[in-house]
Amino acid sequence: MTMTKIAFFDAHSYDRDSFEMWNKDFGFDIHYYKERLSMNSIELTKGKEIVCVFVNDEISAQVIDALVKNGVKLVALRCAGFNNVDLPEAKGKLRVVRVPAYSPHAVAEYAVTLMLSLNRKVYRSTQRTREGNFRLSGLLGFDMYGKTAGIVGMGRIAKVLVNILKGFGMNILAYDKFPDMKWAKENGVKMVDLPELYANSDVISLHCPLTHETLHMIDKDAIDMMKPGVMIINTGRGKLIRTEDLIQGLRSHKVGSAGLDVYEEEAKFFYEDHSDRMINDDHLALLLMMPNVIVTSHQAFFTREALQNIATTTLQNCKDFLDGKELVNEVMAK
Ligand code: NAI
């Protein structure tokens, strides 16, 4: 029996380790490529029935037509977000599956990691003490207790986050386009509109998907409505924030700090080592220099448990497709 071939793009050693381990239970013939899927790498999909992609692969209309021509039938996203797939174009040509929830805990805990690191300036104090500087000036933080967190998008990740933040004794405001009022009431969360959330939150954390509505939702107008010194955390998608306006907000001190695990133009940099060259992106270079900003490389998901769930769910999605079963994790254009 010939094994079904999977072209696996943007593969790193940790992906390979995890997928190889769990693929023992499935037996796919996985071809790992370090390239991202785009028209430049499309040749690699020839003879493969399935492509497995991540957050920065580009599944545009042109790529979809080329995939179909090469015999690909399934796009298996090994992530939750699917903003990088042209779903209307894929309709009727290719099926698309994803991993809807590999570990909401991983991302929620990471959002809190960014909040606490920024607030208590752990990265600055670590650098200082390594140099033998044990002074405290410049390291002043605030109690999380009694402050207000504003959560945008009250889905799986945000619900875990709310329970962690409530443990600190924070007040929670939230906005969701499709609010779960029952959950909010049971968990002491006040659902509000965005202007009210912006005006009253000390910390704002973004957990909604990137859509045409949420693109650049954090722009100058939104920042103008916020409390002076607000902390903004983004573990959602880079394009939720208009970076230029965030930088302006940081410069004017309207925004006190920002923790960014995602960045508008991350596809050019994230997951690769650029330490031997200039960062050829003025906005990113500026953010990296600011003492009140933390930029990390889309790593909020990166825990052992999440990697296991990503591998097993992705491989099960592929098996269900081949077995002609219902695809419970399918995404398609409405
Ligand atoms: P989810 O689907 O459970 O929750 C998303 C929530 O956003 C839903 O409650 C939905 O009603 C709401 N929403 C939809 N449109 C909205 C709008 N226009 N305005 C406000 N709210 C809106 O998703 P989950 O699992 O909580 O993930 C949230 C996002 O986090 C994903 O879409 C993805 O972009 C990002 N993510 C980032 C990761 C990382 O490693 N940094 C890892 C996993 C997800």
Automatic annotation (TrEMBL):
One GO molecular function term of this record is: NAD binding
- Record has Oxidoreductase as a keyword: yes
Q: Which UniProt keywords apply?
A: NAD, Oxidoreductase
- Residues covered by the D-isomer specific 2-hydroxyacid dehydrogenase catalytic domain: 7-331
- What Gene3D superfamilies has UniProt attached to this entry? NAD(P)-binding Rossmann-like Domain
Asked if the Swiss-Prot or TrEMBL record annotates the protein with the keyword Electron transport, the reply is no
Residue stretches making up the D-isomer specific 2-hydroxyacid dehydrogenase NAD-binding domain: 112-300
A family per Pfam: 2-Hacid_dh_C
> What family does the Swiss-Prot or TrEMBL record give for this protein?
Belongs to the D-isomer specific 2-hydroxyacid dehydrogenase family.
Q: What is the protein's given name?
A: Lactate dehydrogenase
